[in-house]
Every structure is written in structure tokens, then in C-alpha cells.
């Protein structure tokens, strides 16, 4: 699908450009938003790096806001789905405001070329996006809201399945600690390799939702894009995991001591001679099992696709965005009140929808 190929064509810098908006320091987030805006303006006028203050304004006045160099407009376009995701899911008002201001600038007269028209083939072409994301109203407790903010600061996004887990904050807190330890903790596997193993685990379960998430994290961590071109392009060390990945997913009772021995010592069934240390294998099994189980949760709960998984969402109405997660801990009389206010258009972003179609999968990553 188009959103898969678009993601695979992005660079590390492109994927990480908006990460400054997930900084814990509000002043740092503001500085990041200003920098992002100047980068976009520079790209619009064909400059490869942010210009000095005042220069772009002079260029805009001299050209009437027009540009003759459109070579870098694609760099702006590929950021729009991410900005829309931030606009609709960020748990802090200053982050949403920053994303809204940037998107509004992109819709100004001199930037209209950045916002295309919807296509009939787009998933939400005839659907009101706001209404489709308002299937139910979820008013998290203060504990859940704090966890949402922490997850945002850790991962730079608030996944739809995390919203569903927010109904059970005690479980969500444990899950966040586990995920952070598996993928960011002081463990033997390099960071890109952790995400690559998560990708092949999600692909084994044919869960495109998780494949896209972990591909994004893989690119963000500096993983080689060549690994994603097919199983044969991946490192031999991880190619030998095909049997373990399949058995852990579908029939874990078939895994024997001989399988573990071959992976850790090499043997006739391991001609690649890429033996894993016991600590590496334990880390691999933990990631595979975690992602397999998470994929079942994704399918079982019918988690909807993320906003930034569809390029066709770039026409989402910026002015009528959903004001989710605006926590107000004081009522008018000063008493404490655990309440979340949403916009007049409805409640917070819904996360429930039908599961992905069976034909949607990154088959080139499947170990079959």
C-alpha cells in the first residue's frame, strides 16, 4: 500500500524532524516548533537549510509569496501526516497549538500547493474524519492522563492501542515499563536490531499496524533501509530466526532444546554459523513473544489505523480539530476535579475500528 512505500522512502532526518515536539521541557518544544516552521519555509523557497532571520521574508516579498523551485516540496508533504497525528493526539495543548500553527501556514495562499485534493481511493474519502474518530467518548482519569503524557515524552506519539489500554491504567503502567525496557533498556541487542526483530514478529502475525510502527522506529534509530527490502537482505544472524519466530507465534510447544542449542552453538541446521549468545537469544525471545501477543491484542480490540499511516488524510480540517486530552484539575470554585474537556465536535480520538484486511501485509518480511 502507498503508506508503506512512502514510509520506506523516508530518511532518518525526515522521520525524526518533529521529535522536538515531544521534549519534556515546554520552552524546548517551543524552540523546536519555531525551528520546524523555518525549515518548512526554507524548503518551500528551495533552500536546503533554515535561512537567517529576515531573509525568507525578503524573498517572499520579492516573489509575492511564490516559488520557482519546487524540488523540496516533497520534504514538506511527507511531514503533513505526522503533523496531523500530533494535532489530534498530543496530550498537551502547546504541542497541538504548535502543530496547528504549522499546518495553517501550509494552507496559506502561498503554500496551497502543499495540500492536495482527496482521492476517491483514499480510505476516508467520503467519511467525516472528526466523526469517524469520535465513536466513543473516553474521559481518562488523572492517572491515565499522566501515563499518556509520559508515553508521549518517551515515544513521541500516543498510539491508538495505548488509548485503549488507558482504560486499565495499572496495566498500562506495567506495559510501558516493559516496552521501555525491551526496546530502550540496557540489554544486549543493538537498538535497530531490536526493532527489526519486532518487525519480523509483527509480519509473522500479519499485523500491518505494528509493522508500520516498528518500521518507523527502526528508521528513526538509524537502521539500514536495505534490511527492509526483503528477508534475503537482512543480516544472516537474524535470518536464522525464521523457525523460532514461526513456532513462537503458532506452536510454541514444538520448540525443543535442540533448537535452542543450534541457535546458540551452531550446527547442521544452522549453516550460517551465526551463533547467538544466550543473553541475545533471551532478548530475542522476549521481543518476539511481546510483539506476537501485542498483535493479538491489536486484532482482538480492532485497533484503528494511525492517522499518519494514510497520506490521504492531509485534507483533515485543521481548524475543527479535536481538542483531546485537555486536563483541567480545578473547577470554577477551585475544587479538584478529574475531568477532561473535549471540543464541541465530540469526544477524544477513538481507537476502535474493524481490523486490517487480510491482504494488507508486508509479505516481503514474512518468514514462510
From TrEMBL:
It comes from the Eukaryota. One of its GO terms (biological process) is cellular response to L-leucine. The keyword Cytoplasm applies. GO terms for cellular component: cytoplasm; nucleus. It is found in: Cytoplasm. Keywords: Cytoplasm. One of its GO terms (molecular function) is L-leucine binding. Belongs to the sestrin family. PANTHER family: P53 REGULATED PA26 NUCLEAR PROTEIN SESTRIN, SESTRIN HOMOLOG. This is Uncharacterized protein. It comes from Schistosoma mattheei.
